[in-house]
Amino acid sequence: MMTDLTTMLRERLGLADPAPVEFQRGGIEEGDGFVREKIEYRGLEDDLIPAFLFTPKGRDALGGVVVFHQHNGEFHFGKSEVAGDVGDAFQAFGPALARRGVAVLAPDAITFEDRRGAVRGVEPDYYDWLQHYSAMSYRLLEGDLLMRKCLDDAQRALSLLIQASGLDERRVGVAGHSYGGYTALYH
After folding, report:
1. pLDDT band at 138, cuts 50/70/90?
2. What is the torsion angle, in degrees rounded to the nearest 10, for the CA atoms of residue 25, residue 27, residue 30 and residue 33?
3. Please, which pLDDT band fits residue 185 given cuts at 50, 70 and 90?
4. DSSP collapsed to 3 states, the chain
5. How far apart are CA 151 and CA 183, in angstroms?
6. Contact by Cβ (8 Å): 39, 164
7. CA 131 to CA 79: how far, in whole Å?
8. Phi/psi zone of residue 113: left (φ > 0), alpha (ψ -120 to 50 degrees), beta?
9. Do residues 49 and 108 make contact, with C-beta atoms less than 8 angstroms apart?
10. pLDDT one-digit tens code per residue, 50-73
11. What does the domain layout of the chain look like in residue ranges?
């Protein structure tokens, strides 16, 4: 049943089949039982998608999860909340799962944290809400949906996690909270 629904959504939204994703690796930081690496890759519109990749320290990952962050009206938080650097400590899935042997990719959703217009980082900006609204509205005017962009970004994130971690695709999944939960559900 879920496969039929997924297939129908993919066809209706015009989503491409999963494909390899080119990405760049950046700075590496070691934490208590995990390693965090900065990753950057390109989206459907050639937009830069920053993410953190968490891996277990000193051992191979048993599995992997792409964790999509929440919305909560906090456009200045994205991957850094999943990392436990800012925001709600209960959203810090990256380090917690990596310590337990699970590789985690935490990307910024479009219009969040480092994917906001002129503002980057974890400080709020008065116009954050407007950028999200504009991203949705302009797509509607062009006959497109923000959800299509979000789901394409999600597919790229999953493909990237499989590539970067070397895990079998049957050992990876997706998770999220709130906005991230919808992304995971519809993915």
Report:
1. very high
2. -30
3. confident
4. CHHHHHHHHHHHHCCCCCCCCCEEEEEEEEECCEEEEEEEEECCCCCEEEEEEEEECCCCCCEEEEEECCCCCCCCCCHHHHCCCCCCHHHCHHHHHHHCCEEEEEECCCCCHHHCCCCCCCCCCCCHHHHHHHHHHHHHHCCCCHHHHHHHHHHHHHHHHHHHHCCCHHHEEEEECCHHHHHHHHC
5. 7
6. yes
7. 18
8. left
9. yes
10. 999 999 999 999 999 999 999 999
11. 2-186
Q: Which pLDDT value is given to residue 16? A: 87
CATH fold group of domain 2-186: Rossmann fold (3.40.50)
Written as six digits, the tokens of 101 are 């042997």
Q: What is the pLDDT of residues 72-88, one digit of tens each?
A: 999 999 999 999 999 99
For residue 106 the two structure tokens come to 């935490």
CB atoms inside a 10 Å sphere around CB 96: 16
Give CB contacts under 8 A, 24+ apart, made by 168-172.
171/62, 171/63, 171/64, 172/63, 172/64, 172/65, 172/66, 172/103
Q: Are 111 and 146 in contact (CB under 8 A)?
A: no
To the nearest whole number, what is the mean pLDDT of the chain? 94
Which residue, among 23, 25, 21, 43, has the nearest Cα to 35 in the 3D structure? Answer: 25
Tokens of 90: 């209960």
